[in-house]
Amino acid sequence: MQISQRISNITGGGSDGWDVFYKARRMIADGVPVTELTIGEHDIRTDPTILAAMDRAATGGHTGYAIVPGIQTLRDTVAARIQDRTGVPTTSRNILITPGGQSALFAAHMATCSPGGRALYIAPYYATYPGTIRGVGAIPVAIPTRAHEAFQPRAEDIAAEAAGASSLLINSPNNPTGVVYSRETLEGIAQTCREHDLWLISDEVYDTQVWQGEHISPRALPDMAKRTLVVGSMSKSHAMTGSRIGWICAPDEVIDHLANLATHTTYGVPGFIQDAAEYALTQGPDLEAKIAEPFRRRRALARDIIAGQNTVSLIPAQGAMYLMLDIRPTGLSGEDFANALLDTHHIAVMPGESFGKSAAGHIRVAMTVEDSKFTKSLQTLVTFAQTLAVPSANAS
Q1: Measuring CA to CA, how many Å separate 1 from each of 4, 47?
Q2: Is residue 98 exposed (0-12), middle (13-18) or buried (19+ Cβ within 10 Å)?
Q3: Angle at 73 (CA atoms; ends 72, 76), nearest 5 degrees
Q4: Residue 97 in 3-state DSSP?
Q5: Which of 33, 44, 321, 380 could anchor a disulfide with 295, C-beta 3.0 to 4.6 Å?
Q6: SS3 category, 100
Q7: Sequence spans of domains, the chain
Q8: What's this protein's family per the entry (predicted)?
């Protein structure tokens, strides 16, 4: 007997991109102190008031099966939030509550991709994107971007791969680069989707973490609401990573089918977690700003450190909780640099190669430890890079 190819081929037969992270965790388990700048996990945990709301809901009895598409009041709240932020008319009919953003990404591709079909996504990409696409039985096709263009996607590159594709997945603010897609970029993406009849899946889980520019949901662009599925999550905006709660916003007929899918897969999200999410959303932008502020502050610290040398360069960090650093002047790949930094200084970062070929020679640094520790770690990283620098290296 064999397990299915759909499952056994999720990583494409190679690494899943998390090797350095797993290595760091093994070191920690062996008692080695490691500073983890790897995953997007807040160093401050879920706000106590949100946990208190969750506790009230659970002890009050909201522990049975919740309605599969999501409780009505939460769907109403999410819809109102999206309408307020985008200006696009949105109701609960457009919302499905999911067990986190990753579940929403999987469901969105189940809705838009047929087995054996092509599904496009922008590189650099969050490490689970190609595996998610393979998991639904589709063929992942990466659209490259370029560091010297701040990793902004080109419409013509998308169009070149659009034949036979059914969907395009984008992410802005972007993980791993921290880049916020410009209006010009998004208008080009939208035009390409219209011309080639593509569904657009827009991963917007970092929409509350914008440090420069503006977050534009492509669903708000002309004629795009009917072909766009937006993925949202409470993980980043409200530090509720472990609660596993997110949503899809899509045309109502898509939501109807996705509710059927959820009945046969997740069977919904626990009611007490939904109640806590509703409470959190009703606290408004002040709570979201409080949760985002450490990353804004650390971005400023990082820019000062990096400005003081010329070995490591910073891709414009316009949003999200990450920095994408160009370390090509060291002569090492992102993977080799990350392993050497971990072995030598016990600082763990993610290699750029974990996020696709477009990020080769880069590393991703999560700004997820307290300020003084973050500052010290980044200074150590930069100094380490300077000791490795190849004088004749061309980082263009």
Answers
A1: 10, 48
A2: buried
A3: 85
A4: strand
A5: 321
A6: coil
A7: 5-45+286-388, 64-283
A8: Belongs to the class-I pyridoxal-phosphate-dependent aminotransferase family.
Q: Which two structure tokens, joined as six digits, stand for 46?
A: 């879920």
Identify the band that residue 16 occupies on the pLDDT scale cut at 50, 70 and 90: low
Cβ-Cβ contacts under 8 Å for 93 (sequence gap 6 or more): 252, 255
Q: Which fold has domain 5-45+286-388?
A: Aspartate Aminotransferase, domain 1 (3.90.1150)
N- to C-terminal Cα distance for the chain? Answer: 50
What pLDDT digit, counting tens, does each position of 156-203 carry?
999 999 999 999 999 999 999 999 999 999 999 999 999 999 999 999
Burial of 217-241, coded b for 16+ CB within 10 Å and e otherwise, reads bbbbbeebbebbbbbbbbbbbbbbb
What Å distances lie between residue 60 and 8, 24, 56, CA to CA? 42, 41, 6
133: closest CA among 166, 161, 157, 163? 166
Dist. CA 266–CA 284, nearest whole Å: 29
Task: Tell me if the domain spanning 64-283 has CATH number 1.10.620.20.
Answer: no
Tell how strand 35-37 and strand 347-351 pair up.
parallel
pLDDT at 335 over 90: yes
The H or E element containing residue 67 is none
